[in-house]
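From the shared-data thread, chain only:
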Amino acid sequence: MKAPKDYIIFPLDLPDYEQALSAVDRLRDHVGLFKVGLELFIAEGPKILEAIRSRGGAGIFLDLKLNDIPATVKRALSAAARYQPRFVTIHAEAMDPILKQIPDNVLGSTRILAVTVLTSHSREKLLRFGCDPALADDIPALVLMRARAAREAGCHGVVCSGQEVSGIKDAFGPGFIAVTPGIRPAWSMVPGDDQKRIVTAAEAIRLGADHIVVGRPIRDAADPAEAADKLADEIASAL
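Structure, as tokens:
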């Protein structure tokens, strides 16, 4: 069984190497994974992944949301796996059975997750992007449809909101990974939040989330390590 802290993914939404590694040094014994997204990866490149790995402690969630033609995505995933992240993300639109053609010895322990519907997306935004109105009115059904396509394409799991986790676990079983952003601890709700489909950490874990992404409540705390430990306590209460 994972320790409560191992459920926590902390996003390194920071502009440069020094600030990111400062956060890693503060939190590597208090969270399970560090999320490296587009901002930091474009600013610093693969060396930031090597630096995080060299520190020990928490692993890496490489959140690049790859989206291109299948052959390009396949090569990008193979290249990313060389740095041994726990997870790499692709967009739902990039899914294709070609992912099944990546040999296990290339991926190693790296797992591919498909981003279903961003937790910042609402019905209105989906409609602006041309989504079928029936699916925009039923986001859980849209997420489930994309999760099914992800599994058929060879993905190991999905990124989805806590509101959709139980449906995914019911449909595909406990082995299909669900990583859940849009998490706000019960003790730290954020006014004017840009996330639309929010659940608390305890709710997400009870619903079956394998990992939760928590940024601002930890990053903006007076003592980020203490905030992460408090979040781990909330997770422990739900296990």
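DSSP finds twelve helices and eight strands in the chain.
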